[in-house]
Structures are given as structure tokens and as C-alpha cells.
Design goal:
Layout: E1 3-8, H1 14-26, E2 31-35, H2 42-51, E3 57-65, H3 70-76, E4 82-87, H4 95-102, E5 111-112, H5 118-130, H6 134-162
Parallel strand pairs: 1-2, 1-3, 3-4, 4-5
Helix pairs in contact: 1-5, 2-3, 5-6
This protein binds 5-O-phosphono-beta-D-ribofuranose.
Amino acid sequence: MKKVGIVMGSASDMPVVKKAIDMLASLDIPYEVHVYSAHRTPDEASDFSLNAKGRGFGVIIAAAGMAAHLAGVVASRTTLPVIGIPCKSTNLDGLDALLATVQMPTGIPVATVAIDGAGNAALLAAEILALSDEALAKRLEDKRRADTEAVLAKNKEIESQYNV
Ligand code: RP5
């Protein structure tokens, strides 16, 4: 199966990125995790992206906060699908990263999830890989069903507590 590449702009993004790692692991999807910054280590970020397709990656997730150029820089160096996670920062609550990640000019797409939306980034990556992987597609369908059942069980609990 193709791997998911996860890059983050700083080790301080790890608490957010961990949610994507855990989601990929729960779906048995292979991944690699790296700290590559668009600003502090642009050569490494660029090299990783240029070589990603040849190294067996199928999707790249890029997480960054503040002036979040990482997803755009990664996307500029590969035609693999790139999913951007705008990470929340202290001053502007992640709105800075959201706008920097989502507002890509035509030609270099970045599929942007919600601020700190690492779980959905992993699920979107899984859905992309599942297009050519039947077994993964089945695992995603099973997960969706289990999630629905969990919500219905919660509904039952609340209904029986409050509706007399
Ligand atoms: C961004 O700047 C990183 O992605 C991080 O979210 C933010 C702050 O980085 P640190 O100063 O904590 O390393 O490039």
C-alpha cells in the first residue's frame, strides 16, 4: 500500500499531528512523520516533496501554524495530493494559518481541513488511498458504520435520561 507522508512545520505542532498519526494507525495505513519547515528548513521540505512519489507515498499531509506556507511549498514540489492542516496559534487562534493554507492560487492545490483538523486530514488521506485499495475502502466503511452506531447509542442514552 502507498504511504502517507506527514510533515509539520515545528515539533510544537505534534499535539495536533498526533491525532492524524493515531487515525492512520487505527486504519493500518503506513506513514512517515517529519519536521520540515517552509521557513527554517526549506531545502529539506523541498527535497522530501520532490522525492515523495518515487519513495512510495500516495498523499502528503502538511501541518503548520502562523504564516503557514508549508502545505503550499510541499504542493509546489509534487503532483501528489497535499492536505493542509492549519494549526492554532496563540495570537490569532489559527485564522492566520487557515487563510495561508486554504488560499492557494490556481495551479497548486492544497485540500485544507479545519483548524487543528488532523483527524479529518488522516481520513481524507485514507479515502484517497482507498480509491485503489479495496481492503482499505472496506475498513473505512466499517469505521463509518461504527461511528454512526456510537452516535445512535449516545442518542438512546440521552433520550432515556431526559424524555420521560
Ligand atoms: C510554524 O510556526 C509551525 O508550524 C508552528 O505551528 C509555528 C510555531 O513554531 P515554533 O516557534 O513553536 O517552533 O512554522
